[in-house]
Write a structure and sequence with these properties.
This protein has 391 residues and is mostly helical. It folds into 2 domains: 1-36, no CATH class; 37-375, no CATH class. Helix content is 63%, strand content 0%. The chain contains 15 helices and no strands. It has helices at 2-15, 25-35, 54-84, 90-123, 131-140, 148-160, 176-187, 217-222, 232-237, 249-262, 267-286, 297-302, 306-313, 324-344, 351-390. The protein is flat, with a radius of gyration of 23 Å. The chain starts with a helix and ends with a helix.
Length: 391
């Protein structure tokens, strides 16, 4: 590493102001900070003020995503070979799934980082590490058979419209990964809904064994077939059809533990999202008029992307509420809306995406009223203390 450090230091003057390649300074700094911890601080956008800089924060999130990624690769192979009626081992399932995920990850990072490098170069800004997490989140919330060109367009849309137009890392209002999914959901709904998209090979007309269904638990409930749901344990472990990284609640909770222990993710938001889901689930149980409304509240935790959204999407430090009280309100409303959208409007079986994006928009307003409420209480206490002094 000393050799690499010396080489970078030798090249640095050429990319600094006044050097021959000074116009590529932001690109050089981006590559340098990718290899070594930077010795500078950010000037706007995201600010990390303790021993964890932005790069290390993103690294911890990626580490928390590893259990989800590894299980997702295994489950892709498992669902594929199940559809063919073939018995395979764990490593064969994992290797098959890994080779299917790899092109999606490469396209996501290639397109996203390419745009970020170009944007930083045009503006003359330093390159932030924010997309290191987004680049992995985007493939994990996609169907495995999504065409690569479609993923490239969605990633470009998310980076340009969902992030760069607001000023880049730390300035975006909406979670960029969810912007990518929302874009595909409305622009290419046939590739984001239906039973075939969740199991590799079915969109290509692969022959499947009798009795196999590629339907997700949410799709079954939306179709009024909740009696055909897999067992709660099977949904908790994640051996069911679904988006690459969203099926295993167990793997997601392991990631949540990493985020909470390291202080990177807000446990208040995570807990409040689950609390909101619990409250709305119990309320729907009390006024149930169909089988979907009668579903036990805890089933919503292991279906679709509820757990994934609560842990990795709702806790985004940029688009979430910043005040401590605001985090409770923000998370609770996400949980409430997620279950409500699922049950009341089956046309959008995955309500988590819409709920988080909606609350991203209202997060600044929540924080404003929380801060204003604190100010008003302090003013009131000050007036009471002043009156006592006069008496």
């Amino acid at each position: 590493m000393d050799f690499l450090r010396k080489k970078i230091d030798q090249l640095k003057p050429h990319f600094s102001a006044g050097g021959r390649f000074s116009r590529f300074q932001s690109v050089f700094e981006g590559l340098e900070t990718f290899i070594f911890v930077p010795n500078t601080v950010t000037f706007k956008g995201s600010h990390v003020r303790d021993h964890l800089d932005l790069k290390r924060t993103m690294t911890m999130v990626i580490l928390a995503l590893l259990p989800v990624f590894l299980f997702g690769a295994y489950n892709i192979g498992l669902q594929h070979f199940r559809s063919l009626g073939v018995e395979t081992g764990m490593m064969e399932n994992f290797w098959f799934g890994f080779l299917k995920i790899l092109p999606l990850v490469v396209v996501s990072y290639g397109v996203g980082l390419g745009i970020e490098f170009i944007a930083a170069q045009i503006r003359g800004h330093e390159i932030n590490e924010g997309f290191l997490v987004t680049g992995l989140l985007i493939p994990l919330i996609m169907p495995i058979d999504i065409p690569l060109w479609m993923l490239a367009i969605a990633t470009a849309f998310a980076v340009i419209i969902g992030k760069e137009v607001f000023g880049g890392t730390g300035m975006n209002v909406f979670n960029p990964a969810l912007v990518a999914r929302a874009f595909l959901f409305f622009a290419y709904p046939a590739w984001m809904t239906g039973d075939k998209v969740w199991t590799e090979g079915l969109t290509n007309g692969a022959k499947i064994v009798d009795g196999f269904s590629g339907a997700t638990p949410l799709a079954l409930c939306a179709a009024g077939e909740s009696t055909k749901l897999p067992s709660f344990l099977e949904m908790f472990i994640g051996t069911i059809p679904g988006s690459i990284g969203e099926t295993s609640t167990l793997a997601i909770l392991i990631g949540a533990l990493i985020l909470v222990v390291t202080g990177v993710g807000s446990w208040k938001i995570i807990v409040s999202v689950f609390a909101g889901g619990l409250g709305m689930g119990l309320l729907l149980n009390a006024f149930a008029v169909n089988a979907y409304m009668e579903l036990p509240f805890y089933y919503h935790y292991v279906m679709g992307s509820f757990a994934f959204g609560a842990v990795f999407m709702a806790t985004d430090p940029v688009s979430a509420s910043q005040t401590e009280t605001g985090k409770w309100i923000y998370g609770f409303l996400i949980g409430v809306l997620s279950v409500l959208i699922r049950v009341v409007n089956p046309a959008y079986p995955e309500g988590v995406m819409l709920a988080i994006l909606l609350m991203n928009m209202f997060a600044p307003l929540i924080d404003y009223y929380v801060v204003q409420s604190n100010i008003n209480r302090r003013i009131k206490r000050g007036k009471v203390a002043l009156n006592k002094q006069k008496v």
